[in-house]
Amino acid sequence: LLGCWAGVGKSCLLLRFSDGSFTTSFITTIGIDFKIRTIELDGKRIKLQIWDTAGQERFRTITTAYYRGAMGILLVYDVTDESSFNNIRNWIRNIEQHASDNVNKILVGNKADMDESKRAVPTSKGQALADEYGIKFFETSAKTNLNVEEVFFSIARDIKQRLADTDSKSEVWFL
């Protein structure tokens, strides 16, 4: 899970997906955290190891070290914070430098439950950026559980398809 900086909701998305819970208290991720969840995908049990990276600039050198082994990356921004969206291109450049060439990516606009008056990034703008890079796009809410399962299952399906195409037999997937 990558995002431009602290507060876009990466940890909340991970907590919602892995534990089914949500908290309003904000605790900054220091360096890297991870959770594991085993899912069933097309009749097969798959163990997802999901890494939650710190969004703060001072942890950038730590987090880039984890890109190389990632099979999938969720690029998360906050729909109420335009600067978090504007920084996504920088993260994509960073991924291109440090991650595997064929890593699966999905753009995620989080906090979609927020009042429309607080929204700074229209859905159409998120979709346009995803289209530009040829990646999928979801809007999510860790608070209401909107599209949380869907985004994680979508990237898992994409990875499964890519691995099937390359005949990889890995049983643990790193996101």
Report on the structure:
It is a lipid-anchor. Pfam families: Ras. Keywords: Cell membrane, GTP-binding, Lipoprotein, Membrane, Nucleotide-binding, Prenylation. This protein is an alpha/beta fold. It has one domain: Rossmann fold (3-Layer(aba) Sandwich). It has helices spanning 10-19, 60-64, 82-86, 88-98, 123-133, 148-166, and strands at 2-3, 32-41, 44-53, 72-78, 104-110, 136-139, 172-174. β5, α5 and β6 form a beta-alpha-beta unit.
What layout of secondary structure does this protein have?
Elements: E1 2-3, H1 10-19, E2 32-41, E3 44-53, H2 60-64, E4 72-78, H3 82-86, H4 88-98, E5 104-110, H5 123-133, E6 136-139, H6 148-166, E7 172-174
Parallel strand pairs: 1-4, 3-7, 4-5, 5-6
Antiparallel strand pairs: 2-3
